[in-house]
Amino acid sequence: MRWRTSLWPRPSKAAGEPRRGLRGAQRLGIVAGLVAVLLVSLVSAAFAGAFAGQTPAAAATPARAPHRAAPAAPKPHPTGHARPAAARRGLRTSCTSVAHIGDSTSVGMVSAQWLPDAAQRLAAQYRDVGVRHALIDASGGRSIVEEMPAQVNGFRVASGWHNAGFRGCWVIALGTNDIANIAAGSNVGAAARIAEMMSAAHGEPVMWVNTQTDLSSGPWSESNMQQWNKALVQAAKHYPNLRIFNWAGMVRPAWHLPDGIHYTSAGYAIRAAAIAHALARAFPAGGHSTRTLVN
Description:
The protein has a 7-stranded mixed beta sheet with strand order 1-3-2-4-5-6-7, with helices on both faces. It is globular and about 45 Å long. Strand 5 (206-209), helix 9 (222-236) and strand 6 (242-245) form a beta-alpha-beta unit. It has one domain (2-9, 22-59, 87-294): SGNH hydrolase (Rossmann fold, 3-Layer(aba) Sandwich), CATH 3.40.50.1110. The protein is 37% helix and 11% strand. The two termini are 30 Å apart. It has 10 helices and 7 strands. The chain has helices at 20-25, 30-51, 85-88, 104-110, 122-128, 154-163, 176-183, 190-201, 222-236, 265-282, and strands at 2-5, 97-102, 133-139, 169-173, 206-209, 242-245, 293-294.
C-alpha cells in the first residue's frame, strides 16, 4: 500500500535511475533476490493485516521487550483537534519545504484509518513547526534499492522530485527494510545505500529517522536495526548536511503492534509529532543544529 501527498509532479518511471556502478552492485543472486522480495512482501502483508484489524499468524508471536505503558494521547481542542504542541513550545524550523520519503512505518502517519484526526497526521505536524509545502510518499516494504511490483524505491522517488524542481529539506524514514534485505543476502551494503540516498539530496539538509523494532531474531531484528543506525552515524561524518533523529532512543514497546515493527494509532500520532519536532531541532529557524544526533 502506497500513500502519497504531493505538490510536485510525480516522477516518471525513468527519472532518477541509480548510477551505473550501483546498478551493477545491486544485482542479487537468484536465491538471495527471491528471499529478499519474499521478506519485504511478508512485512507488507503483515502491515496490511494489521490495517484491517487482524493480526497475521506469521507475526503473532514475536519476541517482545518488557512492556511499558504508553503515554496518554494528546488532549483535544474543544473542536476535537489535537493542540499544536510544537507551536506552544515555540519549535519552528527553517525548512519551509520538506520532502518526506518513508516505508510502512510512515504509512500510518498519513492514514485516515490509523489517525482519524487530521491534526495528528504528519502533514499537520509539519505545518505546526513552520513547513509550508510538504511532499510525503510512504510505501509498504520500500527500501532505497529494491523495488516491489508497481513500487518506486526511495532513491528514485527522491531523484524524481529533485528533477521536477523540488528544493528544500529532506526527511528520510528508510532503513528498516534495507537492513532486512542486507540480512537476506543483498550485496548492496548499508554504507552504499545511505550514500545513494544522500546523493539524491544534492547537499540539501537531510534529517534521517533511525530504526528500531521489538524483534530479537530474523531480518528485522533489533540487532540488525542497531547495525543500520551505526552506519548512519558513520555516514554523518562525511555529510555535514545530515542529521539523525534518534527515534530508536525514545520509542516504547507499547507503541508497537504485535508484529514488533509497525505502530498502533497512538504510536503513529506520537511518531508524527516527534519527527516534526525533531526537524525543528535539527534545522531550527535562524540556523542549523551543530549536533549530528537529534534526541
